[in-house]
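During the second half of the funding period, the structural biology subgroup turned its attention to how the target accommodates small molecules. The most pressing case was magnesium ion, which had performed well in the primary screen but for which no bound structure existed. We therefore specified the complex as follows and requested a full 3D prediction, including the ligand pose.
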Amino acid sequence: MSHIEAVRNVCGETFAPPRHVAIIMDGNGRWAAQRGLPRGEGHRRGVEALRRTVRAAGDLGIDILTLFSFSSENWSRPLAEVRDLMGLLRRFVRNDLAELHHKNVRVRIIGERHLLDPEIGRLLQEAEDLTRGNTGLTLVVAFNYGARQEVARAARRLAAEVAAGRLAPEAITAESIAAHLDAPDLPDPDLIIRTSGEQRLSNFLLWQAAYSELVFVPTYWPDFDRAALESAIAEYRRRERRFGGLAARAGTGS
Ligand code: IPE
Ligand code: IPE
Ligand code: MG
């Protein structure tokens, strides 16, 4: 029995860490502006926050950590900033992949990969291939990711099966759509955190967020750390998840 399973058994599910935490890492630019620094400096410090958060998530017994690192809509930023962000991703994979692998982290990528720069495509593939057999934290990087685009991809895959005569239109259900998303084997996020004070999803995991608890924190992403993650998890634990049913206490009739 793993340490986490032991904690779950002793304390009951209420005290177990959320299994899947997803984070919208926002506020790098404002962090930099506040200090009179270029936005790129905020992004560089954001990568340090990402490293801290991956370590903390592993320590806290989270199984899956999904990080929104570049959205389908972020291409609309100035070219210099887009280049900066692409450079940071390349450097992150080159510098950190060996250590992630050493720490038994399994890397997964969600998002549209076909139109990416081929070198970035290769690096992302290498990260997934190298860590495929790892059994520790699953780190899902949402890169060139948009939830509407992901659902459209699932719809295209299903439509192709219908067109090929392998699937009846009536057989399309919420479950079969979910099964054609980018990482269909992963459970939905229990907790979605957004930093920087913005209270919106910005096209992140729209399908999977149906029953996620949302926690919005004012911290800019470069300042996010283990304590901030723990406090978001503490907030999550105060929530009562009902999934459309009744509260656990009310449901017992006592
Ligand atoms: C998050 O910080 C990083 C990305 C979206 C890539 P921002 O760059 O959005 O920072 P703000 O929101 O402008 O402060
Ligand atoms: C969402 O942040 C995307 C990422 C964190 C990668 P944005 O900064 O792009 O979102 P908006 O534009 O404020 O909604
Ligand atoms: Mg932003």
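Two results from this model are relevant to the next phase. The longest helix spans residues 79-102. The first strand starts at residue 20 and ends at 24.
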